[in-house]
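During the reporting period the student researcher (J.K.) took over the structure-prediction task from the postdoctoral fellow and processed the backlog of single-chain submissions. One of the processed entries is reproduced below for the supervisory committee.
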Amino acid sequence: MPASPSALDPTRCPLCGAINQCAMEVERETGDKQSPCWCTQIDFSKDLLARLPEESVGLACICQACAQTQATLPGQ
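J.K. obtained the following structure tokens:
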């Protein structure tokens, strides 16, 4: 069952619930400058993005494990 918007945790993957380890979210939460996030180095497939619960789009990052199931490196 998808999470309700009030229960949405931006530190957790909206697909599997694992901690997403998004450097951009860490920086937003802590104010501490982070290295570029792993997610900026891959392209997310349309199929993977279509699986996201609507209420999480733009609010919670997909974790690296879920992203790697269907993602490709830019230019491939």
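The committee noted the following: Residues 10 and 60 are 4 Å apart (CA to CA).
J.K. will present the remaining backlog at the next meeting.
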